[in-house]
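> example.struct
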């Protein structure tokens, strides 16, 4: 089986490459070429910039693949470029979308794929553009010209991730817990959530390759263990042997403080993050996301320790200021009650 991964160096796509190599697939990756040393096995590396449509078409014109896994399409135009460049030269296309592409609030919890509508508010560009991509792909699926499968991961962590925590502060979480510094949590921290890890999600993408049961359909690929958002910090605390000092600030106030940094909380993470995987399990028998929150965070902690990560001082100072404002506000409220 010859598979092309568009991307290949991101958190999920690296795991996809490794999972495909484990199945002894012949794997090629297309990306800008900055991190192709990451792979454990032999991988063909095609270097280019997909946003340069003409260059991309030229690089693909003499190549053929059994399947293309597209991890770097973020809107309809990106997806169209993939289909046009590889039309007639790929037996199947697997596109990475996101559970962010759903309209909120949900109609179902845990969320079922075929019961929900796609996001329609351009104010949150990432979700809206992913939804636009899916609308385009839905039209292509109806035409029936090429097998297309859509996979929707939820928030996914893994080696190399840069999206961990409320501020996406990553290693700073470990630093602040060890330093007994307060950690910021949005709202009361009790939004239900399932925390997914890249090797589990990769199994869905690789399992879709050559699987005719999955043609023309969309699927979740998430962990199904039920947690709340605060568990992310509490579990890190258990691993470090230090109880975290968690400060709660309303999502609305956080968005006012930094729309660019906190809009994802307002539009996406203030709603349940529990997703039904029964459709994927039906069409990909044996699929199970079995990396627990504790095991996944332990993997990340080992990575931090091994690679010697540095504190993001800008985010550390921002978290100091926000939690300091909260503490000062609490003092003022106590004075009012005297």
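> example.seq
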């Amino acid at each position: 089986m010859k598979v092309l991964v568009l991307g290949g160096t991101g958190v999920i796509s690296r795991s996809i490459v490794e999972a495909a190599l484990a199945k002894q697939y012949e794997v090629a990756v297309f990306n800008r070429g900055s991190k192709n040393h990451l792979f454990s096995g032999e991988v063909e590396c095609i270097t280019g910039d997909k946003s340069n449509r003409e260059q991309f078409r030229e690089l693909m014109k003499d190549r053929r693949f059994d399947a293309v896994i597209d991890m770097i399409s973020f809107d309809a135009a990106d997806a169209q470029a993939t289909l046009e460049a590889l039309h007639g030269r790929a037996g199947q296309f697997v596109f990475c979308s996101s559970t962010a592409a759903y309209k909120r609030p949900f109609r179902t919890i845990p969320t079922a794929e075929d019961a929900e509508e796609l996001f329609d508010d351009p104010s949150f560009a990432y979700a809206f553009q992913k939804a636009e991509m899916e609308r385009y792909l839905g039209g292509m699926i109806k035409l029936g010209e090429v097998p297309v499968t859509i996979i929707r991961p939820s928030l996914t962590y893994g080696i190399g991730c840069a999206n961990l925590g409320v501020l996406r502060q990553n290693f700073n979480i470990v630093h602040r817990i060890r330093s007994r510094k307060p950690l910021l949590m949005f709202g009361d921290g009790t939004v239900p959530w399932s925390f997914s890890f890249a090797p589990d999600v990769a199994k869905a993408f690789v399992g879709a390759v050559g699987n005719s049961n999955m043609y023309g359909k969309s699927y979740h690929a998430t962990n199904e263990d039920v947690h709340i958002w605060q568990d992310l910090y509490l579990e890190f605390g258990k691993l470090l042997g230090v109880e975290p000092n968690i400060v709660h600030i309303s999502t609305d106030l956080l968005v006012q403080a930094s729309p660019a940094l906190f809009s994802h909380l307002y539009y996406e993470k203030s709603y349940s993050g529990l997703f039904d995987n029964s459709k994927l399990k039906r069409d990909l028998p044996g699929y199970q996301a079995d990396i627990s929150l504790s095991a996944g965070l332990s993997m990340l902690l080992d990575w931090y320790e091994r690679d010697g990560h540095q504190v993001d001082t800008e985010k550390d100072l921002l978290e100091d200021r926000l939690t300091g404002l909260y503490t000062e506000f609490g003092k003022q409220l106590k004075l009012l009650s005297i």
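> remarks
The mean pLDDT is 95.
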